[in-house]
Design a protein that fits this description.
By secondary structure, the chain is mainly β. Helix content is about 10%, strand content about 45%. It has a seven-stranded antiparallel β-sheet. A six-stranded mixed β-sheet has the order 11-10-9-8-13-12.
């Protein structure tokens, strides 16, 4: 699984079925929701360390969400077997990031340490607030640390699995 984590990135998950022809509702983690449809194939987690490759035949926005038709899935019953499955794609399909830009999934699990050397915990997830992104860090307590690179977030070291912050828990 570790090698898979290095070559693939999680971009969403399968929701419920849609219609009678095997279409699926998609929960996307991509910045621009419909961009998930530009990645093909999808790797779906169907159990512990069990990934299966699916080709996206069709997909589109539908209301406020995304729906997709995967090759080999023709009925709601077949689609239900995929409900809740994590969607990953090959990292090589993703756009190249600029310096000091990171995919959220690369930050999850990193240790957060402040300038004074206190370990605050690990990033458990991120959220968008409108003005800036926020790292949700869990240690002895849970903290919301603003992701303001150069002001609050001083350095991200993916090799050391650490984020250095200028921030004190309240």
């Amino acid at each position: 699984m570790k090698d898979f984590d290095k070559t693939h990135i999680i971009v969403g998950k399968i929701g419920s079925t849609y219609g009678v022809r095997g279409w699926l509702k998609i929960h996307t983690y991509t910045e621009f929701g419909a961009s998930i449809l530009s990645y093909n194939p999808w790797y779906l987690a169907l159990g512990k360390d069990a990934w299966k490759v699916f080709t996206v035949e069709e997909g589109r926005t539908h209301g406020n969400g995304i729906i997709a038709k995967l090759a080999g899935i023709h009925t709601p019953e077949e689609g239900r077997l995929l409900t809740g499955a994590t969607i990953a794609v090959e990292r090589s399909q993703l756009p190249t990031l600029k310096k000091n830009e990171y995919y959220w999934s690369d930050l999850v699990g990193l240790s957060v340490i402040n300038k004074q050397g206190h370990q605050l915990g690990k990033v458990i997830y991120l959220m968008e607030t409108g003005s800036n992104d926020v790292l949700i860090v869990k240690g002895e307590k849970e903290f919301a640390v603003p992701y303001l690179f150069g002001k609050v977030v001083l350095n991200v070291d993916l090799i050391k699995h650490e984020i250095l912050v200028d921030w004190e828990p309240v």
